[in-house]
Amino acid sequence: xxxxxxxxxxxxxxxxxxxxxxxxxxxxxxxxxxxxxxxxxxxxxxxxxxxxxxxxxxxxxxxxxxxxxxxxxxxxxxxxxxxxxxxxxxxxxxxxxxxxxxxxxxxx
Length: 108
Known about the structure:
The chain has helices spanning 7-19, 40-51, 68-84, 96-103, and strands at 32-35, 57-63, 89-93. The chain has a 3-stranded parallel beta sheet, covered by helices on one side. Strand 1 (32-35), helix 2 and strand 2 form a beta-alpha-beta unit. It has a domain at 30-103: Rossmann fold (3-Layer(aba) Sandwich), CATH 3.40.50.620. The protein has 4 helices and 3 strands. The chain is 46% helix and 15% strand. The protein is α/β, with parallel strands linked by helices.
């Protein structure tokens, strides 16, 4: 399911799907754009929606360049997940620290 796959993760998704259904206002036939960090929460959400019949999901990921190689691995993971689920992927990388300095903005 994600970077920390295992029986527990898959069992949790299965149990969750038995009790939770997407809200009625979230139509699986509509197009959806979903931010994907690569962390457990967003990966779980992608799998839940995908297994609930949502196929028009575009996954997007922005590497803020805060965490070096780890952030690169997250970006690669997100792209690979989109490919594995046959979902469109939009990814970009921005040096947010440099941009904030240039724009005289806080990182907060």
